[in-house]
Amino acid sequence: xxxxxxxxxxxxxxxxxxxxxxxxxxxVRSAWLKGVHSMLQHQPALHLLCSTGGMDVIFxxxxxxxxFVASAASQLLxxxxxxxxxxxxxxxxxTKDCDWxxxxxxxxxxxxxxxxxxxxxxxxxxLKLLSxxxxxxxxxCYAAWTQVLWLDIEKQIESFLLEETVQAQPVLANLLLNxxxxxxxxxxxxxxxxxxxxxLEHLTPVQAGPLAVGLLKLCKCPQDVRIQxxxxxxxxxDCILRAASQxxxxxxxxxxxxSDPVTxxxxxxxxxxxxxxxxxxxxxxxxLLSLKHLRVDLPCVSLxxxxxxxxxxxxxxxxxxxxxxxxxxxxxxxxxRVQKSALDVLAALSEKKDCDTLIGSLFxxxxxxxxxxxxxxxVLKKTFQATSKWLVRLQEVSSSNSQWQQTEKIxxxxxxxxxxxxxxxxxxxxxxxxxxxxxxxxCLRDQKEFRQCLLSSEVLRLTENLxxxxxxxxxxxxxxxxGHLALVTCFAPESPGLGNQYNKESIVAKFQEILSTDSxxxxxxAVISIFTKWLREGCTGQLEDTEQFxxxxxxxxxxxxxxxxxxxxxxLVEVFCSQTICxxxxxxxxxxxxxxxxxxxxxxxxxxxxxxxxxxxxxGSLCDCDKPVGQRACDVxxxxxxxxxxxxxxxxPQEIEDSPAGRGVAWLQRTLRQGSxxxxxxxxxxxxxxxxxxxxxxxxxxxxDLLELHDELNKSxxxxxxxxxxxxxxxLAAVGIIEDNGVDCY
Length: 746
What we know:
By secondary structure, the chain is mainly α. Helix content is 69%, strand content 0%. The two termini are 30 Å apart.
């Protein structure tokens, strides 16, 4: 104990690091804070910290010019306060903090004095500290003292909301949200919620937005506060509708506003703030629409009206008559930020069934964007994404009310636009057009109207042409699109006759060519992914055809320099093995007993796998220089071993060398231990092991300790390669070692 006290005195006292010139180095100050934090698990350190002036140093470091140090100081104060109250308070806390431990009283006094000071930076530091404190105290054990603390500062916080001179409103909003999440305020009664209501009224729309969306996510929040929070979020959208002079029944979203509507109108009338406010509002609305359980009702029809209005303002297709509408329209013209945000919310609204009455008008807006030459590639991509979502909704609506004519007309218009976009000189447009086509096929391939429009258009020919596109991203997207289209044109039972252009053999041959010869990795990855999808969906024919197909693919893939292509090949093999076992085994998905491992189905399985040359690919991949490939190969082999040897393995591996097959397996064992299978891999069958011999492979699966190899591969080198020290060395190597970088990395 005396040695501990001496060490603590040196750490906290003037004779310690903070008394010398080294204290000017931010890394030393960081180290000091880290040292204090480590010491605080010992009670003597906590007492000494308060008695040697250590707390004052931490208070000072809250305002350190290094953000790293300032943040660490704030987090340390949170830790000191919570630790002192938890460890030193033997009974329930009173409603006064005068009975609290000395360290806790010092921190509370510091907070109160800072909040009452005339220094804006001190006020902001204390608000951030309080926000961190309430943000970290979620457990019920914190409820009593956090409530006491809040009662001490509540009046001061309320005064900040009313004083325009205090520029800490964003921090205030975050503080109130963290307090609202605290268990101390789960009761919906009390003055706290009145303060939240006041904040929603007095904060600007930009400042109140994050608070409002956070409140709407809470399980326990008074319903009137929820409604008020939703009203705050909807005010800008309401203003848009009113500015556009919509018909009376759609004149606005809200019956009344929380704050002065003039404030929102002023922000939307300003070129500098209009886009920012709308983008923030739209991001919050998208977040709300993604929630499974929203405890307030969104006015989805009016919201959709507002979104359509925003999009029409942005592309100049709407000419409002009101002065406010004209100003907003000028501010939003060709504003891609707002367009993309509005399209994201539009896509999310497709899940809401209330909006079906507007579906015709909605597609008018979407088609206008798809057709317009002024639509930027990034906005077009978002438009495609929203259109695919709403096409699914359109099919659902049509099937329920038999309005097939509207569906057919919209699909025809979409395919006309798609044909033009597939021929765009801009590769990003061609790429997003192919992605849109793939999305449509995934969702609508079973719909008769979709198939008719697809087959009567030029889309099939244009898509196949893009397999030769000069841009590798486009070629990859074309592979994916053609692969999905084949499910409609080639592999479906009712596939139409399309001549030689779109037959299965020509597509497989073309994809094999891409897999073998394309110089870029993206198209090759797309091919192996499509091949795996076809295999999963049973599109590769009978077992014999599938066996030959898989064999050809794996022989190509194992030589590929792209590790993701090789990994995709292993996924293909895994699917093939699983399907073949299900076909040939009497009990699908279940391992056979050891008594029947020599039965005909087992022998047939081994023969199929050997003919397909799977074992050479799998064992060769175990020593792949890219660890994910080796891990996946080992996973597949462990699965096969579990099928062929469900109960036990060969007891004595030494005995297997008594036969030619056994000697080959012994060679394989030694080579795998050395991790050099890739270098010693037999190519002519004269050396090593015969990977196409069923007896050898049965022995290999039983004799080689695949589980040990599995553990070794999964152990990886993350403990070295991804250690903090290694990562920071990588950062410093990339950005150069200068003083500031060194401090931040520390």
